[in-house]
Amino acid sequence: MLLTPRILDRELGTIGGDRARWVALETRLAGFREALEREPVDESDEDAATRTYVSRLAGAGLLALMVPAEYGGAAERVSSTAICLTRQWLARTSGALDTAFVMQGLGSYPVTLAGRDELRATLLPKVARGEAICAFALTEPGAGSDIKAMQTIARPGEDGGVVLDGEKCFISNAGVATSYVVFAREQQEGEGGKPRFGAFWVPGDAPGLSVERAQVIAPHPIGAVRFDGVRVPAAHRLGERGHGLRIALGNLDVFRVSVGAAALGLADRALEVTVEHLQRRVQFGKPLARQQGLQFALADVCTDHVAAQLLVYRAAAARDRQTATPDQAAMAKMYATESAQRAIDRAVQSLGGLGVTVGQVPERLYREIRALRIYEGTTEIQKLVIARALLA
Length: 392
Ligand SMILES: Cc1cc2nc3c(=O)[nH]c(=O)nc-3n(C[C@H](O)[C@H](O)[C@H](O)COP(=O)(O)OP(=O)(O)OC[C@H]3O[C@@H](n4cnc5c(N)ncnc54)[C@H](O)[C@@H]3O)c2cc1C
Prior knowledge:
This protein is α+β, with helices and mostly antiparallel strands.
């Protein structure tokens, strides 16, 4: 059921644009997947797996999608559609692989958006070549959905730079990253009584930066990052003073919808294993697939899945055409992640005892889908975005 943008374009004209580009990308992704099947990566060491995946993604030219052509990237502008298509293919294979891919973009796009020329020229080609591993540090123990509650502080330092103090948590690639984009409060109150925030680039080996790793339910390098008097030169500030949240939101414009695309990849795989199993498994003298009750469940999953794809690629195409509204990505992310969770739960149920057996595909998918409904804005936060657009 991999309903790619190419097929959607043919059927519904949702994508438009350069069709040859999507064909070329899908061919490359199919080749990449075949190579991985021939030589799988051991994910038991999360950091080593991340480094290997980043290097292999770079070798296949896929990290070039995260960087503009001017800095060694694939196209003039970073394309949400290309990122969505890639995440849908990669997530089918492995959540850790998908994370290694997307973090290169999530952790470097703020530099593309707002970094000084010299920083862009130094960092971005390394991102595309897989020589830098990126992280994006926004969440804090007291600031999850409510990002304006962040307490990490950027105090004025020498020569126009700043000094960072504070703690971030749930930071993907914490410890394995060589490049961090960090958001911090600049001073307690700005004009109009509102707090002001800045965005900064920090190398992974900066003195004063330390990491405490955590473990989540699916393979995913993650942890808390502390900043104890970390000096950041003026050249590593991203954008203007006080523009940090604007940069964080600009990043989400590109990447939030792609969480929905990763969920599509997981749902694709869930549907595939469900259909295979129901056709093969015989109970009561016939394959389970011939039970109407199970056919009804499959029809619901399949319809949900196609609807999710339409929402995801509609939002990605709108962003690439620069006509997107925030509710489009919010609907896509919410619907695709929630419906993928339902599809995967259905896969587990359809396989019976095998569905909860460690090492079986549905068991992996069941653990991998869960975080997608939480990061880059929980389902509840997406509902607030959608309602805000409706009630404006
Ligand atoms: C695997 C994983 C990877 C992550 N990677 C990163 C990363 O790389 N960088 C980064 O900065 N962060 C990252 N995060 C953090 C993630 O973005 C946050 O977990 C998320 O924003 C939610 O914040 P929280 O966990 O503090 O939950 P909270 O904000 O405390 O929310 C708890 C619950 O309350 C609900 N809730 C909160 N506010 C409202 C409201 N106003 N109305 C209704 N319901 C509400 C939420 O929806 C949620 O269900 C990651 C998280 C995970 C799980």
